[in-house]
Design goal:
Length: 156
């Protein structure tokens, strides 16, 4: 009987803390409301020029107050599936993403290879630094002139 009372008290405390307003956001700043948090997308594009982009790996870093919360695939058939990424790196404000092209003909030119979803705390101006680690052809040769681009997309 005594354990039931203790368990009930614990559950009640958890429920109250989950629904009780705190008056401030995750940053601990009492003037920042939790409503100030917004979500936005970041599109990552690789331009392989005339070469077929069969494989890639990039690293994206963010500033404090920006959290990477999701990763989805790109725009074309070869990279429409969600890419592989280092989940452990997410906690540190950076992510390493990579994929191999599906299908027989890798895309040429500029291709959106991934869309990242970000949680941005109120008042923070997001900054993104993206480094292309590797871009390769189906013959496993490096695409030397490949360029990477980052574009902020939708905000909610």
């Amino acid at each position: 009987m005594r354990w039931a009372l203790v368990l009930t008290a614990i559950v009640a405390a958890m429920l109250l803390s989950a629904v009780a307003p705190t008056g401030h956001g995750r940053s601990g700043d009492p003037t920042a409301s939790s409503d100030a948090v917004r979500f936005e997308t970041v599109d990552v594009t690789i331009d392989a020029g005339d070469e077929g982009l069969a494989a890639y790996q990039f690293e994206l870093m963010t500033n404090e107050g920006v959290t990477i919360v999701g990763v989805e695939g790109g725009e074309r058939g070869a990279y429409v599936e969600a890419p592989f990424y280092d989940a452990a790196a997410l906690a540190g404000g950076r992510i390493i993403v990579g994929a191999l092209a599906s299908g027989d003909v890798p895309p040429r030119g500029a291709t959106r290879v991934a869309r990242l979803h970000m949680r941005v705390e109120g008042g923070v101006e997001p900054r993104y630094e993206c480094v292309l680690r590797i871009a390769a052809t189906a013959q496993a040769t490096k695409i030397r002139d490949a360029a990477i681009g980052v574009r902020e997309g939708m905000t909610r």
